[in-house]
Amino acid sequence: MQIDIVALLIGAPLVAIVGSQTGYLIGAKFGVKLFDRPDGRIFNQKKVKATEKWLKKYGTGKALVLARFIPFVRTLINPMCGIVGVPAKKFFFWNCVGAVLWTDGVIIAGYYLGEKLEGSVDKYLLPVVGLIILVSVAPVAIEILREWRTKRHLS
């Protein structure tokens, strides 16, 4: 099956933008209820404060664009921006910039690497995909392990 690269370069950022905007709106509308609990594993005040600090340190634009390239952070940054009150227009602008850079950057890199590695995909690409999956899942696994160890220690 052949996918038109132009359609992909247009469609992927649009889908990424919609997904991030949804996260932002959920954070803006329901975030206080989700993050108000001090003991939440993923949603808690500590993460809200860390996000505020990160946004102040790097600025909203740089933080949103950089977050796209960091597994797990890219998922949480959107609702966090809604919670901490990043203005909607500012979020939308930087969300669009980050979505285009991230999705189209990955697509273009994959396109050219695919041409260069033609016939060698199984040899080179599959281990890279495996590593990406491992790196993406690691933060969640570490957090779950920490939570489990803390609960086990307290009981």
TrEMBL record:
<dbReference type="Pfam" id="PF09335">
    <property type="entry name" value="VTT_dom"/>
</dbReference>
<keyword id="KW-0472">Membrane</keyword>
<dbReference type="InterPro" id="IPR032816">
    <property type="entry name" value="VTT_dom"/>
</dbReference>
<protein>
    <submittedName>
        <fullName>Unannotated protein</fullName>
    </submittedName>
</protein>
<dbReference type="GO" id="GO:0005886">
    <property type="term" value="C:plasma membrane"/>
</dbReference>
<feature type="transmembrane region" description="Helical">
    <location>
        <begin position="92"/>
        <end position="112"/>
    </location>
</feature>
<dbReference type="InterPro" id="IPR032818">
    <property type="entry name" value="DedA-like"/>
</dbReference>
<keyword id="KW-1133">Transmembrane helix</keyword>
<feature type="transmembrane region" description="Helical">
    <location>
        <begin position="124"/>
        <end position="145"/>
    </location>
</feature>
<feature type="transmembrane region" description="Helical">
    <location>
        <begin position="6"/>
        <end position="27"/>
    </location>
</feature>
<keyword id="KW-0812">Transmembrane</keyword>
<feature type="domain" description="VTT">
    <location>
        <begin position="12"/>
        <end position="111"/>
    </location>
</feature>
<keyword id="KW-1003">Cell membrane</keyword>
